[in-house]
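Bench log, entry 3. Co-assembly request; chain sequences pasted below exactly as received.
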Amino acid sequence: MIGHEKKIVVLGACSSIGQAIARKYASMDVSVLLAGRDLAELEKICSDLKIRYSGEHYFAHFDALDFASHQGFLENCLKSMGRVTHLIICSGFMALQEKCEKDWSLTEKTLLTNYAGAVSIAGTFATYFEEEKEGTIIGISSVAGDRGRQSNFIYGSAKGAFSLYLSGLRNRLFKNNVHVMTVKPGFVDTKMTFGLKGLFLVASPDKVADDIFWASMQKKNEIYTPFFWRYILLIIKLIPEFIFKRMKL
Amino acid sequence: MNYKETFLSGWGGYPKAEVKLLRPESQVELIDKIGDKKFFFISRGLGKSYGDASLNEKNYVVLNERLNHILDFDEAGGIIHAQAGVTLSEIISIFLPRGWFVPVTPGTKYVTLGGCIACDVHGKNHLQHGSFSKDVLGFNLLLADGTVEYCSRKKNATLFWATVGGMGLTGIILDVFLKLKPVQSGYIDVDNEPAKNIAHFIELMDRSAEDFEYTVGWVDCLATGKNLGRGIFMRGNHSKDGNFRPHSPAPLLNIPFDFPTFVLNKFNAWCFNQLYYLKGRITTGKMHQHYDPFFYPLDIVGGWNHLYGKRGFIQYQFVFPRQKAVEGIEETLHTIARRGMGSFLSVIKDFGSKATKKATLSFPEPGITFTLDFPNYGAGLHRLLWELDKIVIKYSGKTYLAKDCLLQAMDFRKMYSDFGKWFRVKLKYDPNFKFQSNLSRRLGILRPTK
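Structure output for the full assembly:
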């Protein structure tokens, strides 16, 4: 079908967004390598893909925080799949803002997973894609990264930094025919948000995966998913700081 | 794992309960959580049981929707190994094109493997085949103490049979081995015939028993006098035409919110029944029908339960032993007619004699089963249904726990006379009653006080 020899690596494949993305691409006859820390769970997800969609699918261990292992991980992917055409970074971590403020280890994990770990793996694959003169890096950031809000700015700042990194990477890699897409989901119905109060317009992981798939086919630079978050954030970003600092968003 | 506090109901919309929803995304997460001693647990699939079987007031309800991976498929034997959250709809979509179908299916495909076992669901082929558990080779069950046991007819057999039809009260089913059925088509060769009354239905069922795998009757309960119990008798067999087209993934129409209550009332119900009977008369005879409208006519409208409005509806299903079935059903219909509460949709099936005696809480018994749908008229209806419970007991029958929302503890014991046997298994594997629900408490399935 739409395969054309695409081979994708999904990081954070145990997460519901990661799984939804893997399913979407697999349903389009694309070969998927699922990566994460829980090998037993990854094996189940992989078997599921193989049975539902046939096709070649793999799984491998990946730890966003083990920076030294990232080069070896790339080599592992190439050994399994021969080549890689897309890297999709879904690995992330979020804890409640109040908890992070009282517990440095949670803050550290948030910053390292969402920013440093993502930068490390993206940089590793960027070099590979540059040599191949072909490839796509899709980074799942967040609308939380568009502006620092008192309710979630530790997670938000890490995602904001990630968005900034991706746009710089997009700039560097363009001349070598490598595409970088930034994805900014709003509220998504995942383990991260289940049970939280004050959510609205919550999207399903399948809807987000669908948006990501079609946007990547169209080589978009930056998408909000669902689309209306672009306009919500536009309004939020336009609020002058002297007013915003008084708000309780 | 976070929980979400919310109101939940079964498919009938009555009753509602305030529960703490858990939604594990991996088996390990669920196994870790089971040690939590703060609240009780009950597992829930897609919530297609009608009453309060998957409700747990102020306690945990475990959603299985994200534990839905297919782990293995043995092409040679047609054996699927899948997590309990996988649905019949998914299984059919994936495996029908490869020549396999589910051997037993209830009236909707939007149910999970776990739910099918917990209710030991039955379909239109119980007479020839038996219930869902017949093709369940085994399953892994998460017990109250956090251990996981494999249960089959050979290993942990008493636990296997207590879990089949056990309404989730022995533990949480994690993954299932199910033997699928090879078919040569996704189409059914159907043959419909009008039936004059209940006795005529039973005569038609007897005549069709050997030659037709699937048989079911739709009964117009609002017809009175000599038309009492008239309807359409439907029977069919899998076709052999090699057409394996699966159903379309989404319902044609979706009703996401409750309709105003006046939409489905007695007059409308009467009109509906007249039209359905007429349609049946016009389309009697032979037809080549896709499995989707044959098995799942109501799935075409997603959320059709919302048509009944906020007050919801109650489905009442019972089984009578063969000898007294006609008398019993007629007395039931007369009682309902006297109270003036119309049943919207009624179904009659012959269970034959293949019921699994070993699964003590499983519903199917040798005899005739009858199902009635009532808009939830309120206290008057509840009194009627308690009256019907007494009639069911009088005829040595029982009601189906997957549909039930009103049965009282003493009547339950009379209907399920082997309950003591099941209860001993419950006490052995869940002595602190970690697994309980609104249904189990209502039926008096309680930890004995010392």
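The radius of gyration of chain A is 18 Å. Chain A is about 50% helix and 15% strand.
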